[in-house]
Amino acid sequence: MVGTELKSLVIKPDYQQIFMYSAITWNRHVIHYNRQKARDEGLPDVVVQRGLIGNYFAQLLENGMHHCADILRLEWRVLQSAVPGDTLTCSGVVKQIHEQVADTQIEFDLLMLNQNRELVAKGTGTVQLAD
Asked: Which Gene3D superfamilies does the entry mention (predicted)?
């Protein structure tokens, strides 16, 4: 039903998770693993990667659909940096449902807020219900 909310996903990224994500994605940008270099670039600390934020949104959709749907599309925009120790809350709400004879697709609006209720990222995701 349009307006239905997914169960929120709360994540507290830490230095190790951010470093390991850089390693597995071959992301060598030092702002993701070197505090001093991040500060030299005007950041408060190392920052959570855009891709990792997208993975959090994907996890929200997977959990919310109880692993009974395929993610067809996921788009997001990071509006503010997130750093280790932040508490990030991902939420999603059903925006549209497209029912066809062979399949059903559900479109979600996605938000990520930090512990201060500031908007970190927003996006949309579309899933297709599994047969």
From this structure: Hotdog Thioesterase
Task: Please answer whether residues 129 and 107 qualify as being in contact, where contact means their C-beta atoms are separated by less than 8 angstroms.
Answer: no
Give buried/exposed letters for 59-89 (b at 16+ CB in 10 A, else e). ebbbebbeeebeeeebebebeebbbbebebb
pTM score over 0.85: yes
pLDDT digit string (tens) for 28-42? 888 888 899 899 999
Report the top-level CATH class of 9-13+50-129.
Answer: alpha beta
Q: How many C-beta atoms surround the C-beta of residue 128 within 10 A?
A: 17
Residue ranges per domain, the chain? 9-13+50-129
